[in-house]
Amino acid sequence: MNITTKKPLEEILSFIEAHEVRLAIFGCGTCATSCQTGGETQVEELKKALEKQGKEVIFTSVVEILCDSRLIKKHARDIINGSLKVDAVLSMGCGGGNAALSDMLDIPVYPTNNSLFLGSVRRLGQFEEKCSQCGNCITYRTAGICPVTRCPKGLINGPCGGSYSGKCEVDPDRDCAWVLIYNKLKKQGKLHYMLKYYKPKSYRYVLKPQKIDTLKNENE
Amino acid sequence: MKMNRLKERLKTGKFIITAELEPPKGTDIKAFVSKAEMLKGWVDALNVTDNQRAMLRLSSAAGCTILQNMGIDSVFQVTSRDRNRLAIQSDLLGVYALGIRNVLAISGDYPTLGDHPGAKIVYDLDSVQILDLVSLMNKGLDLKERLLDGGTEFFQGAVFNPNIDIIELQLIKLKLKVDQGAKFFQTQIIYDLEKFQRFLDQFDQYGIDRDSVAIFAGILPLRSAKNAIFINKNVPGIMIPQKTIDRLANSSDPKRLGLELAADFINKLKDVCEGIHIMTVGREQIIPELLDIAGFKREDITQDCIKTTT
C-alpha cells in the first residue's frame, strides 16, 4: 500500500487562506485508513481541529478508494456539480488520491499527508518499503526479495563489497538484501540464478509521468 | 598505437605494483603531482580514485590524464554512484582518447557515508555491468551494441574482498566479474596470507580460471599498535594477530616495523599472486621506503606510456 504520514496541523492550517472558511474533507478507506492518516477517525479529528480554528467543515466523506475517479464522482457529486459550495477541500489520502480529487474539482485541494513509499505493514504504524515499482519485476530470480528496493544501491548482480555479517554498510541495522536473497535461494535450491549475469535494467518504466491504458495495450 | 604498459609488464612476468593516489579537493594539483613524481619508477601504475568514500575530489579522469602526461601509467577508477550509463560511456571514451588504458570498475561508496549525504544516487549500472560495457567498447561497440566511431583497448579490472564472511557470495560475484571480462583484480587490504590463499584455492569450484586473471593483493602498512587495533575494529573480516599488535606496541619505531612487516608480506605474496596494490590513505610518501625494504628497485621510467599529446 501507499504509506503516508500526517503533516503537522500547523502546516495544514498554513495552506488554508483566511477567506477559505467553508471546507470539505475527504478521507480514503484504503491505504490512508491502514496508515491511520485518512480514515474515519482522522477525518473526524481534523474536522474538530479546523472548527476550533473558526472554519466550517460542511462536508466529510471517506471514499473507499480515493484514487479511483469513479468513486470520487459518486462521493463528491454535490461539490462537483456546484450544488454544495465549499471554498476548499482537504484531502487525507496519498498523493495519488489528492491528485485524483484535485483533477475533479476547480477549487483548491490541500494535502494533509505526505506520501512516502509503497510499503508493507509489519504491525500497526510500522511500514517497510519492499517494492519501488520499477516497472520490470525481477523477483522471480531473487527469492521474492527485491534488490532494486532493498539494496540501497539497487544492485542487480549480487552484493557490493560492503556487506558483512549479513548487514549493509550503509546502515548496520539493515540486513544486506543480497545476503537474504543468497540464503533463501540456497534454501530453495535456486542458487544458479545468482551465477547468471543480468544486463543493465531498463529504467524507462520509471520515467515520469507514467500513463497506461491496459485495454489499448492488449490490442497492440 | 602504443600498447598498454601495465598489461605488457604483466605479460613479462613482472611482479606488478600499483598504488592508490587520491586527487585533491580543489584545483591545486601541486601535492598530487609531487606525490606522483615521488612514486614514478616505483610503481607500474597509479589508481586515481573516483570521489572515494563519496567525498568530493577532482575527477579520476583528470587525475589520470595528469599522470599520463607525466609518463606514469594510470588506472581510471569508475564508480556507478554518480553517473548514469550515458555519462560513464562518455567518460570512458574520453579517457581512452586521452591515453588512459586501464579501468577499474566499482559500485562506489554510498553518498550518506560521504560529504554530500543529500546527493541523489545513480547506480544505473553495477560493477559487473561496467565490465560488460568496457568489454563491448573493446569490441568497438556501445552498451546498446551499436558501432562506435573508434573503439577502445582497455585493460579492465575490478575488486574483490577476500576477508568477507560469506565466501561463496564473494566468489559468485567474482565469477560474474570474470565472465564479463575482468582481467585484473585489486583486493581489499589483507594481512592473512593463509586465508587469502584459501580464498584463491576455491576459484576452481566456481569455474573461475585462475590463470585468466591477475590479482594484485591490497596492502596497507600498519603504523602503530593503535592503528592495527583500529583496523581490526573497523575493517570487517580483518583480524591482525595479537602477536603483531604486541610487537608494534613494544617497538621503538613502530612505523618502520609496520613497513618491515608489510615488506615481508609482499615478498611472501610473490608466490601467491601477480602483484600488489598499495593503499596508504594519504600517506603515499611511505611507498618508496616500503618497496625499498621489500627489495624492489626504482626504475628509470622512459615515457613509454601514452601521452595525451601523442
Short description:
The complex is a heterodimer of chains A (220) and B (310). Chain A is α/β, with parallel strands linked by helices and 220 residues long.
Main features:
heterodimer; A: 220 residues; alpha/beta; Rossmann fold; 2 domains; four-stranded parallel beta sheet; three-stranded antiparallel beta sheet; 9 helices; 19% strand; B: 310 residues; TIM Barrel; eight-stranded parallel barrel; 38% helix; 14% strand
Description:
The complex is a heterodimer of chains A (220) and B (310). Chain A is elongated. Chain A has two domains: 2-116, Rossmann fold (3-Layer(aba) Sandwich); 134-199, no CATH class. In chain A, the strands form two sheets. In chain A, strands 3-2-4-5 form a four-stranded parallel sheet, with helices on both faces. In chain A, strands 1-6-7 form a three-stranded antiparallel sheet, with no helix packed on it. Chain A is an alpha/beta fold. Chain A has helices spanning 9-15, 31-34, 40-52, 69-75, 77-80, 95-104, 147-150, 177-188, 214-219; strands at residues 2-6, 22-28, 56-63, 88-91, 109-111, 113-123, 126-129. Helix content of chain A is 30%, strand content 19%. Chain B is an alpha/beta fold and 310 residues long. Chain B has one domain (5-293): TIM Barrel. In chain B, 38% of the residues lie in helices and 14% in strands. Chain B has an eight-stranded parallel beta barrel, surrounded by seven helices. In chain B, helix 4 (85-97) crosses helix 5 (127-138), helix 8 packs antiparallel against helix 9 and helix 9 (242-250) runs antiparallel to helix 10. Chain B is globular, with a radius of gyration of 19 Å. The mean pLDDT of chain B is 94. Chains A and B meet through helix 8 of A and helix 5 and helix 6 of B.
